[in-house]
Amino acid sequence: MRGFNRILLKLSGESLMGDGQFGIDPETVSRLAEEVKAAKDDGNEICLVIGGGNIFRGMAGAAKGMDRAQADYMGMLATVMNALAMQNALEQLGVGTRVQSAIEMDQVCEPVIRRRALRHLEKGRIVIFAAGVGSPYFTTDSGAALRAAEMQCDALFKGTSVDGVYDDDPKKNPKAVRFDTVGYDQVLSDNLKVMDASAVALCRDNDIPIVVFSIRERGNLAKVLAGEGIATIVRHKETN
Ligand code: UDP
C-alpha cells in the first residue's frame, strides 16, 4: 500500500465524540490530531475532511419534520465546527493548517480555492475542507471524494469504527467476512457499507482507491499508510 504521497483523510464526525454520545471530546480530537501529525511527519501530504454527524445530520432533522435542505445546511455548519476543533488540535501540536469551507465565512476560515489549497500543501500545511460540497442533499463522503479528485490525491482514506469492508454488518453478524480488496462496482451493486453511492461512483470514475480502516485503534493510520495495518482497499477489480 506504500507509495501514496498525497492522501485525503475522511473522518466521521462521530470519531470526534470519544466515548460520548454527542459533540466534540477535546481529548479525542487531540489524539486524532497526533495520528494525523504522525502521518504527515512520515512524508505524506494530507487533506482532511471531517463529517458533522456528532452534532447534526440533515436526515435526522428531516425525519423529525424539518425541511431537508434547511437541516442539511445545519449539518454543513456542524462540519465547520469540527474542522475548527481539529485545526486547533493540530496547531497545538505545531502543525500548520488552513480550513477551507465550501460555505464562505470569512471571519473564521478561507473559502475553498483549489490553487490556494495546493499551495498550502506545498508549504507543508494540512488543509481541512469543511462544509462538504456546500450543497444540501450531499454528505461529507461526497465532499471527501470531490476534494480527493480535485486535489489529485492518490487515495481516499476513510477512518471508521470498523477495520474494513465486510460482506455483512460485522456488529450484527459475527460470520461477516472482511474483504482485503473489493471492486467499486461490487460495493455499489451489493450496497456494501463504505460510503454513499455518489461518493463511491466519483472515486470509481476518477480511479481513486478508497482505503477503509479503523481510526479507533491508536497508531493505526500510520500503520495502514505503511501497508502494515488491517484495511480494505476499494478499487477497480481488474487491478486486484
Ligand atoms: N451535508 C450536506 N452537504 C454536504 C455535506 C454535508 O448537506 O456536502 C450535511 C448533511 O445534512 C449531513 C451533515 O451535513 O448529514 C453532516 O455530514 P455527514 O452526515 O456526512 O457527517 P458524518 O456522517 O461523516 O459524521
Question: Top keywords for this entry?
Answer:
240 residues; alpha/beta; Carbamate kinase; nine-stranded mixed beta sheet; 37% helix; globular; binds uridine-5'-diphosphate
Assign the CATH topology. Carbamate kinase
| CATH homologous superfamily identity | Acetylglutamate kinase-like
What average pLDDT do the residues reach? 95
Total count of helical runs of at least 4 residues: 8
How would you describe the overall organization of this protein?
This protein has helices at 26-41, 58-63, 68-92, 114-122, 140-150, 184-189, 197-205, 220-225, and strands at 6-11, 45-50, 97-101, 110-111, 126-130, 155-160, 181-183, 210-214, 231-235. The protein has 240 residues and is α/β, with parallel strands linked by helices. The protein has a single domain, classed as Carbamate kinase (3-Layer(aba) Sandwich). It has a nine-stranded mixed beta sheet, sandwiched between helices. Strand 1, helix 1 and strand 2 (45-50) form a beta-alpha-beta unit. The model has no long low-confidence stretch (mean pLDDT 95).
Could you provide a short overview of the structure?
About 35% of the residues lie in helices and about 20% in strands. By secondary structure, it is an alpha/beta fold. It has a single domain (about 5-235), classed as 3-Layer(aba) Sandwich (Carbamate kinase), CATH 3.40.1160.
